[in-house]
Amino acid sequence: MKTTSSIVSILNDPIIIRRRHWRMLKDKLAKHAMTIGGISIIFCILLIFFYLLYVVWPLLLPAQMQVLHTLKVPAPTAGETVFLATEEQGEIGVRFTSKGHAVFFSLKNGAIISDNALAPAEATVTSFAAADPAGSVVAFGLNDGRMIVVKRVFDVSYPKNVRVIAPRLEYPLGKDPLRVDDHGKALTRLGVQVGEETHTVAAVTEDNRLVVTQLKKESSFLEESETLQRSSGELSLQQSQITHLRLEKEQRRLYMADQEGYIWQVSLQESTAPQIVHQVRVVGPQDQITSLEFLTEDISLLVGDSQGHITQWFLKRDANNNQILTKVREFDGQKAAITAIAPEERRKSFAAADKTGQVGIYHTTANRTVLITSASDSAIPQMVFAPRGNLLLVEDDAGNVLTWKVRNDHPEVSWSGLWQKVWYENYENPEYIWQSSASTNDFEPKFSLMPLAFGTLKAAFYAMLIAVPIAVLGAIYTAYFMAPRMRKIVKPTIEIMAALPTVVLGFLAGLWLAPAMEDYLVGMFTLLIGLPIGVLCFAVMWHYLPKGIRYHIPGGWEAALLIPVILFISWLSITLSHPLEVWLFGGNIRHWITTELGMRFDQRNALVVGIAMGMAVIPNIFSISEDAVFSVPKHLTVGSLALGATPWQTMTRVVILTASPGIFSAVMIGMGRAVGETMIVLMATGNTPVMEWNVFEGLRTLAANIAVEMPEAEVNSTHFRILFLSGLVLFIFTFFFNTLAEVVRQRLRRKYSSL
Predict the structure, then answer these.
(1) What is the DSSP pairing of strand 289-294 with strand 275-281?
(2) What is the mean pLDDT of the chain?
(3) Whether residue 1 has pLDDT greater than 60
């Protein structure tokens, strides 16, 4: 009784009560702190996800069109419109007419700014041509075989901080009409391109001849003057009726469409002798070509037919190495005859109008129908994009000029453009390509994420191929077989490696490991073969040594004896590398790999990445796996041994199974680390986005691509948002595999928890 009362008095002591309350308070604080910390982590992950989604979301928004102004055609007495244009700000438009006038007018109220008569009084206009949109040059063909070339110019000034746009005309080839056809026949079809030194004119005459005239500038240093040297050639077209003629801006070839639905490719390599290269039918037997335009940069042709189909064609080499027009893709969004096609000036988008007044906006690279809407109640014969692509100027058959505001920020993005093969201009076949920028203007952005996703998986695969066997087997040996004193040295040493900055590993891999592997490549493969054989031979020799020698080494320290063996085999492999290379591969294994195996060899390749990333991943996998194996209850191993199982049987059938959830988690965490690695991949590979499993070729990962290109990406551009999309893909990829790993880990835990 005294003992019980003493205990009660002690428990009721005020000091003990205060300590107990303080401990309970600390427990509650720790519990709430851990809860808040866990919720904060989840909140931060969700915040990252939703921020990525916020940046990516505009890529998914549909395009929109909204009419801004509806006007009557200004100066209708100047003739029918043959071409519309507008300046960059979308405030002033110009229409070139069938009577040879250029009428500048306000797009807001239709007020005429100026009406310029361009054709001479003694001649009539019989044809019209527009050159490359960037040059703003147009030409009128006359009935006497001459033509006149003009350039629209919009001067912008800011008097009193108010923007003023003043339109005017220039005559790049002179104000007087230029002779095209020496026979003086009317020019029924016309094409023109004005370059810096060379100008080319192609025309079809009323007597069915193709006339090509080339003008070259020649400078006189003595007189400080320039003259135009003229050369011309012609080609009979026989009975063909040409309906469209388009001259590319490089002035090397032109295309003509006839009434039968054929397109003729004509070579202009010799301006005095134009040559028909080939003809190809581009529409059905009962259809006709109703519209023909170049896509931006004049590499592709857009063909509209009488059934509402639009097809894209560009040159591809055939089996005889001849460049022939090949249909790349087709757009079937409209059902009536296509009356006008208006390419964007700076992107691979275009608008098409049909006979019912519908307008469709398309993007070729993305193979995407962006938008189809009714823009007018009547047919639309003339249509043009503003240079920025944000306005669409339309004229219909009812005499109305409509200005449409276009919101089409990211037409380049589609599922096929991001994840499927795309047939890009100047490519022989559809391919997966990532190339977001180039040094030239005739550039088609290539935003395929497949090479980057493939490179991410490839890098992770080779890294895990090297890291998992070394880390897991090393962890099992360390936790189960190694002597405790040796374990206290090995485990902290390997765990400290996890703190090594990856930029240091990448630096060493790029500047030391990659050149060393290239110089001693045969030795590296010899090492891969010789090291397992050497260790196995040492194990056999150790087994047959006298027991007095073997028992002299304390149990668990046998691995230390392997260190000099491994060092000797490594030294021997590197020493024999060059002699073996001379003996087996003629002294150049790189040449042998390229010629005999058909594999490219890059110094910074996937093998270098695998070794460097493997070294970065090994500490994490090793540490978690070792803890899992070491945490297996001792009564399981002791019981297994007591029942007669060997240490090896106990390890394979009891220890590994019990520790499998932890080992699996370690492997998946290591894989997540490998997938998200940036600096090692960035510094140790050629950083080339290719889709090859070739271990000797470089790669580019999603994370490395973000690190490389984000600093140069224009904020809120398609490139910028696709980089965030690749980050979102990486986030979802990691989240999915981590979730899958946790599900598998829980099942393994439930399965083997009863052991």
Answers:
(1) unpaired
(2) 87
(3) no
Task: Give just the sign of the alpha carbon dihedral 524, 529, 531, 534.
Answer: negative
Question: CA separation (Å) from 155 to 106, 152, 169, 464, 654?
Answer: 15, 10, 11, 62, 85
The token pair at 312 is: 């894209």
Please count the other Cβ atoms lying within 10 Å of the Cβ belonging to residue 113. Answer: 15
Beta-carbon-side half-sphere exposure of residue 560 (alpha carbons within 13 Å)? 12
Three-class SS state of 685: coil
* DSSP helix/strand/coil, 82: strand
Of the pLDDT bands very low, low, confident and very high (cuts 50, 70, 90), residue 244 is very high
| Cβ atoms 351, 384 nearer than 8 A | no
Element (H, E) at 273: none
The full DSSP string for 158-211 is -GGG--EEEEEEE-TT-SSPEE--TT---EEEEEEEE-SSEEEEEEEETTSEEE
Query: Is 119-281 CATH 2.130.10.10?
Result: yes
What is the residue extent of each domain of the chain?
2-60, 64-79+287-448, 119-281, 450-517+610-752
CA distances from 688 to 425, 451, 463, 513 (A): 20, 9, 18, 19
- 64-79+287-448 with 119-281: one CATH topology? yes
Instruction: Say how far residue 81 (Cα) sits from the centre of its chain.
Output: 41
CATH number of 64-79+287-448: 2.130.10.10
pLDDT in tens, 727-742: 999 998 888 888 887 7
450-517+610-752: CATH topology is: MetI-like fold (1.10.3720)
CA 21/CA 26 separation, integer angstroms:
9
